[in-house]
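> Could you send the SPFH domain-containing protein prediction when you get a chance?

Sure thing. Input:
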Amino acid sequence: MTLTTPDTPTTPTTPDPSTPDPPTLDSRTLEAGRPAEVGRPVAGRSGRVIRNEATTEIPVHLLFRDGPDPVPARLRPVVVGRRQGTGEQPRLPRPAAEPSRPPVPRVDPGLVERPARVLPGGTGVLAGMCGAAGCVATSWWAGVLPSAVAVGLGLPAHAGAAGAAGLGPAQWAAYTAAGAVGLLGFGGLARGRTGRAWVLGLFGRYRGTVRRTGLLWVNPLLLRRRVDVRLRHWRSEPMQAADRGGVALRVVVLVVWRVRDTARATLGVEEHERYVRECVEAALLRVSVEAPGEPDGAAGTAQAALTRLVAADAGPVGIEVFAVRPVRVEYAPEVAAAMHRRRIAALDARHRASALTSVVDSVEDTVTRLTLRGLVDLDDYERKVLVKDLTVAFCAGRGETGA
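Output:
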């Protein structure tokens, strides 16, 4: 390859008029993405080129540029694939979409358990007694109270003239006030029990939860709903399930749970006990339960998966699930007979394989001892015969022992 520069003298050559001049490429034209016209010299650029044996010409100014560098541009990363035979860009495979997860149940975020305002039971008793005393005093004032009762209560035996004539507006107002106080006092008395709670509501609005025990006074105008907040366990009926192979099973589970948030459990779902049962049934259809006779490790895995799924579904409605344990697993009636025969066949095959392994080990040990001690000198044929006879003998002996 020869590099021609202006500082190095060269021998002029006479160009052949029949041979066209080699094409040259303008750098500005290349930068613009358009090829220059063939045979036309580029203004401002010399015709110096590098030539090699393959008559490939590369302009020198493309290798050593004296002009200013173009403005740098920020390039975005792209993925270039190999072109196909048709010249089209290959279609890159799209990433597989993630499997859609089931939506998590949501409840009103403002519906959270909070303590209700209640008073001690003595306050209600005192208010009720005051109302009763007011009614008695009003009856004496109106002259309605009999003389014997008035004397027994320490009141004067005679009634006023106004009482004999009848009840006036003042007496009726006194009767109404005293009766209202008595009804509110005695009507609001309630007994709180351990492990029980009341959810209070007024005109459809949640007003709080009462978890206190003993004699209490609760506003009698509030609607009360009793909720059991003790640790509870529920043993289900046989439910449908499947093992890892898709064989139908019938599973009885034991669920240990309790109500953590009484407001959400009572007002966030229609029936929280029924909701727990349906969550367990749905989890059994998503988890592979171990078939009868499988190791304990598989049972622990299924129990953990069931507990996690049911707890995730029941947690948003204020129910805390501690464990979901399969207590009885059996094959469905339609496949029970076939699976029983299959299990017996598997046990028999396992027993036969164990017996055959034991016989082969015994034969090998016997032949090896006879050979090492020099008791016999056997060739290949005699060794095969001895092995065959010993195998038959050991198998017959095991058959008689088993019988």
